[in-house]
Amino acid sequence: MNMDSKDVIICRCHDITEQDVRDAIHDGFDELELLRRYLHLGMGPCQGRVCISMVQRILQEETGKPIDQIGFPTVRPPISNMPAKLLAFKEEVSK
Known about the structure:
InterPro entries: BFD-like_2Fe2S-bd_dom_sf (IPR041854), Metab_Enz_Cyan_OpOx_G3PDH (IPR051691), SoxA_A3 (IPR041117). This is (2Fe-2S)-binding protein. Keywords: Oxidoreductase. GO terms for molecular function: oxidoreductase activity. By secondary structure, this protein is mainly alpha-helical. It is 35% helix and 5% strand. The protein has helices at 18-26, 32-39, 52-63, 67-70, and strands at 9-11, 16-17. Strands 1-2 form a two-stranded antiparallel ribbon. The chain starts with 8 loop residues before the first strand and ends in a 25-residue tail after the last helix.
């Protein structure tokens, strides 16, 4: 079975195909951070553990840049911990 690049899923979290990534690179999103923001790569539940290395390889093929120039995405952890109860829905209290 010969798979076309448009059929190969790169990011399972957001159903992004290899062709989506290549098209975005050709549209000018030719840096890892730009691709992440445009396609939401690495922003799903896996946080890029599955897709980022494949995207780096595609960027290397399409741009000719070595992997060390492509780099890794910027990790932005939460500023501080937040108790889950603060996110719970509260009904508005009458004044």
